[in-house]
Specification:
mainly alpha, 3 helices, single chain, flat
Amino acid sequence: MYTRRQASVASIVALAGLSIAGSTAALAEGRERHPNIRRAIQALRAARNDLEHADHDFGGHRVEAMEAIDRAIEQLDVALRFDDR
């Protein structure tokens, strides 16, 4: 039979697990100096992938957009390296 004590212990264990998971996530975010730039790079890579697999060339504009994305990613990578100095 499931007693109140067992329920309390289970609740405490569950809350402790959530607290540890939350603390771990906070620490990971705290160590990340530029999460917005890294998310922007991921978003640009996803956009480039979408364009690469698009069904249409759009009169050459798709290729130009992909090249612009490549340059943007390069600049963001340089910015991250610059900050590491």
